[in-house]
Write a structure and sequence with these properties.
This protein is mainly alpha-helical and 254 residues long. Helix content is 74%, strand content 5%. The chain folds into two domains: 66 residues, CBS-domain, CATH 3.10.580.10; 167 residues, SLC41 divalent cation transporters, integral membrane domain (Tetracycline Repressor, domain 2). The chain has a three-stranded mixed β-sheet. Helix 6 packs antiparallel against helix 7.
Length: 254
């Protein structure tokens, strides 16, 4: 072939600085489909290069760390670490989880009289809390990922909140209606079905708001937005879900 190398080579050269953040380099590799990038100093002197293999290793390690952090685990724990080391790594968030569980139990305790008068409430409570926690974890996972990729700034935060609120309203109305009809079919109580629908919508709204605000607040205070986010959102949607559902039931049913 008579084709010259100059005709097929890439003319655009992406240069990195030694003090660039690794995540910025990873973003550049993704944006420009790079396999290698030069690292130069302020005088444009070549110091070395970053390859796609190194970037992939960095991204994989970061993803693993974020998955651990969402559950409140520190990244340095090895899967086969000694028992005591693993216990030390995990006990803090388990202790926090225990405290929040006690708070949730006290929320239920406040409405003991309501539960005694309408036993069905005890059977239906976990549905509201469980769906709220799942929805909140979905939101948090998306926000943490967006923060890691530098896709969120101050101006886009309110847009994100508005979007997540919209999603929660649609999901709440859709699944709340299904749950309400399911409740009516079992208990033959239309008011209880409506309370279930409204409680689900409100708890999904709470999950959406905190799913955005928790990681953004952690980032604002210089903390890793992934650390313990999953634990916190579950605690809030449990206590909040119980309070919303039992409060509505007390007002409208009893």
């Amino acid at each position: 072939s008579d084709t010259l190398v100059a005709d097929v080579m890439t003319n655009e050269i992406i240069k990195l600085q030694p003090d660039d953040v690794a995540q910025q380099a990873a973003n550049a590799f993704e944006r420009y489909d790079l396999v290698s990038a030069s690292v130069v100093d302020e005088n444009d002197k070549l110091l070395g290069r970053v390859t796609v293999n190194t970037v992939i290793d960095f991204i994989r390690e970061k993803a693993e760390n974020e998955a651990l952090n969402l559950a409140g685990l520190r990244e340095e724990e090895d899967l086969f670490a000694p028992v005591l080391k693993s216990v030390k790594n995990r006990w803090v968030w388990l202790a926090i989880n225990l405290v929040t569980a006690f708070i949730a139990s006290r929320v239920i305790g406040v409405f003991e009289d309501s539960i005694e008068k309408l036993v069905a409430l005890a059977a239906l409570m976990p549905i509201i809390a469980g769906i709220g926690g799942n929805s909140g974890n979905q939101t948090i996972t998306m926000i943490v990922r967006a923060l890691a990729l530098d896709q969120i700034n101050t101006s886009s935060a309110w847009k994100l909140i508005t979007k997540e609120v919209g999603v929660s309203i649609v999901n709440g109305l859709l699944w709340g209606t299904i749950v309400g009809l399911f409740t009516f079919a079992i208990y033959q109580n239309a008011e209880l079905g409506l309370v279930m629908t409204l409680a689900l919508v409100l708890n999904l709204l709470l999950a959406a708001l905190l799913g955005v605000l928790i990681p953004l607040t952690l980032r604002k205070f210089g903390r890793d937005p992934a650390i313990g986010s999953s634990v916190m959102i579950t605690a809030v949607t449990d206590s909040g879900g119980f309070f919303i559902f039992l409060g509505l039931a007390t007002v409208f049913l009893l």
